[in-house]
């Protein structure tokens, strides 16, 4: 009945101007954020204890690509750029995009502006399994050590994120009808349970283990290498490429689950796809960089306020903006207390909390 009623209302059919408005605004947004991202990348790779000028940056890249045959840039700067800074910036871009796009899609799925990957157990599951490995010491996992080597913790953390998310999803089907509300409640319950186990293991840890656990939970991109970049890239790429295709269904879900279902949205399939894609990106990110908060929570709000609520614009914009935010945050974290390094999770929380409060205040002011 609802679908028949809607089909009878001419106003619900988009005009030609409305159909052209979205591609135009989307293209404009991609150009703006793309240029900002390139600027942030150039700024980040040039700033540090060993400064690199833009001219030197061009010569380093051009000589590697064969555009120029000779360069006067010091070899040390070239090594710092290719081995240390560029992989770190690439990792920041990938993780920022994954966190941003997961936050935007999950907020649309739950129809909740404060939803992020934490609600479905990705972060808590990864933390629990990483702490488990840190406490038992990877040397006891001989087969795992042979397969993953120094990336054993990252591998186990990703498995933990996937298993915890799967548990939340299966429990939502057992405990209720598998709806979004039930999924949200199960996520909160499992997060509380996993958090309690994590707290217990932290309590039992010795000083050295406690230091490792604390540092891992604070998040850092300091261990970035080309190997970690290549390990994360496929998961983030799948999430970034396929999530925008779910934007139409997420737009309809704003009307409510029953209305969206009457308009042809397969809610079960939509939930599965959003959760799988979000878990892949965020799980891989948390596995290599630890817990980095507020990026997936705040970035969608910025895009929604600036470019509108359409989920296609929101998802693509959140991926680009997440990359920008995390690239800048990482640049600040490694330079603000140089030669030491401030964990990036601390910085994103310090900057993100007041900004998020400001966003909530602005939304309330507009409603008055």
Automatic annotation (TrEMBL):
GO BP terms in the entry: siderophore-iron import into cell
Localization annotation: Cell membrane
Keyword terms: Cell membrane, Membrane, Transmembrane, Transmembrane helix, Transport
Gene Ontology CC annotations of this record: plasma membrane
Superkingdom of the organism of origin: Bacteria
Primary location class: membrane
InterPro entries according to UniProt: ABC_BtuC-like (IPR037294), ABC_transptr_permease_BtuC (IPR000522)
Entry's Gene Ontology molecular function annotations: transmembrane transporter activity
Keyword Transcription appears in the UniProt entry: no
Listed transmembrane segments: 29-50, 79-102, 114-136, 148-169, 181-205, 226-246, 274-302, 314-336, 342-361
Membrane topology: Multi-pass membrane protein
Family, as annotated: Belongs to the binding-protein-dependent transport system permease family. FecCD subfamily.
Matching PANTHER family: ABC TRANSPORTER PERMEASE PROTEIN MJ0876-RELATED, FERRIC ENTEROBACTIN TRANSPORT SYSTEM PERMEASE PROTEIN
Protein name: Iron ABC transporter permease
